[in-house]
Specification:
Radius of gyration: 31 Å
Distance between the termini: 62 Å
Largest sheet: 10 strands, antiparallel, barrel
Shape: elongated
Structural class: mainly beta
Order of helices and strands: HHEEEEEEEEEEEEEEEEEEE
Number of domains: 1
Length: 412
């Protein structure tokens, strides 16, 4: 009977080793303490680092303030539709050139189209800062702010054709394609442009700054900002992992601007501010609402851990749309505006690796992705009717920002 008890005890010990090796390996060495207090949150730190710090930082396990800052590098969806802005050649408004009023003289091929922006979104550098306070029970309150620097996309066209290849018409070289034209209409006489633009062509046939222009350029700019204020509460803690909940209020802002400039010169190349015109289309989407989330952190060594955070928000999107034509000297303009309200859901994920090099200091590197649903974008950024501009906007089902972050935090 005693022999059977010995055999049974040995089998039970072996089984416990087989089913729980991770727990056995994770035990701290004699004379040390677990690497964290399980307080949770955006910037986590252990109770004690292996290396003492001579910085004026405090024990992160105690109540007190903390501060974190990090560099972010994110790419966002380039939300703009495809629209032909300008063509090579010029419009014969009166029919005095080829007998057909409104017909284009020249190849009529696209000179500027929004699909000519370089492929793929660009990565935008930025920063994220956070300040907060930790209470004795591990609860934290915090406020953070993130901003990305602007992403710019641009395209231009002038009297020099691509590849210096002047197209032929009926086997003959034509210089009509040395001009760039757009079908803007209903503008007033201040936008008539210079006289003597095209040799041998009456001014009435090429009337307007945008007809037989010398140079046109477009630029699309994207910007993103976000701020949160809320709290983190420990939910489930062990010596080597923890689960925490987060919640609070969130502000997110997508700012996009389309810019178009046309310059028209006379036969001698003379230009001034009254022979240039600017167009802007601004789409500003400010979003406000509550967010909730949860996170899980696992400590893989005395100074290292891995974490995953999931958050979601339901935001009220205040959508402001503004478009404007303006003469180069800023004396004459035509404006259009619209404002809408709608709901934008938001879902985010962040995966980070943490390192605690010295007491009261931590570093992290990770990947994050933020998705926004039901936002608006410029499907046709230019409205060619000067008197009633009205560019077209549509809802975009999915908009993504994603990329990498690296930062440092201090506890006081």
């Amino acid at each position: 009977m005693r022999r059977n008890r010995y055999i049974g005890g040995a089998l039970l010990a072996a089984a416990s080793v087989l089913v729980g090796p991770a727990d056995a390996r994770a035990q701290p060495a004699n004379g040390t303490i677990p690497s964290t207090d399980g307080s949770g949150g955006g910037f986590q730190t252990p109770r004690q680092s292996a290396v003492p710090s001579y910085l004026p930082t405090g024990q992160p396990g105690d109540a007190g303030f903390y501060f974190g800052m990090e560099f972010v590098l994110l790419a966002q969806t380039r939300a703009i539709g495809h629209q032909s802005i300008a063509k090579y050649g010029f419009y014969d408004l009166t029919g005095e050139v080829n007998g057909t009023p409104g017909a284009i003289v020249g190849s009529g091929r696209d000179a500027i189209n929004t699909n000519m922006f370089r492929n793929g979104p660009t990565f935008q550098p930025g920063f994220n800062v956070e300040v907060g306070y930790r209470f004795d029970d591990g609860t934290k309150i915090f406020a953070n702010y993130m901003q990305l620097y602007d992403a710019h996309y641009s395209v231009g066209a002038s009297l020099v054709p691509p590849g210096y290849a002047v197209p032929l018409q009926n086997g003959q070289i034509t210089l009509a394609d040395s001009f760039v034209s757009s079908p803007v209409y209903s503008f007033n006489s201040q936008f008539a442009g210079p006289t003597n633009k095209v040799a041998g062509v009456p001014d009435s046939a090429v009337y307007g700054i945008w007809n037989a222009a010398t140079q046109m350029d477009i630029k699309f700019t994207q910007r993103f900002q976000q701020a949160q204020a809320g709290g983190r509460v420990p939910v489930l803690m062990t010596d080597y992992s923890r689960v925490y909940g987060t919640g609070g209020m969130q502000f997110s802002w997508f700012f996009e601007r389309f810019y178009w400039r046309a310059v028209s010169a006379d036969q001698n190349g003379n230009v001034n501010q009254t022979t240039a015109a600017n167009y802007t289309n601004t789409l500003s989407q400010r979003m406000y609402g509550p967010f909730v989330g949860c996170g899980h952190e696992i400590f893989v060594a005395n100074q290292f851990s891995l974490s995953c955070d999931l958050t979601g928000a339901l935001l009220l999107n205040v959508d402001k749309q503004r478009a404007k034509y303006k003469l180069g000297d800023n004396t004459i303009q035509s404006k259009w505006g619209n404002e809408e309200f709608h709901i934008t859901p938001n879902a985010n994920i962040a995966v980070n690796a943490w390192w605690y090099p010295i007491e009261g200091v931590q570093m992290r590197v990770g990947y994050q992705a933020m998705s926004f649903y039901n936002t608006q974008y410029m499907i046709t950024p230019v409205g060619f009717n000067y008197g009633n501009i009205a560019p077209q906007y549509e809802f975009k089902a999915f908009r993504l920002l994603h990329g990498f972050n690296v930062g440092v935090g201090f506890f006081f």
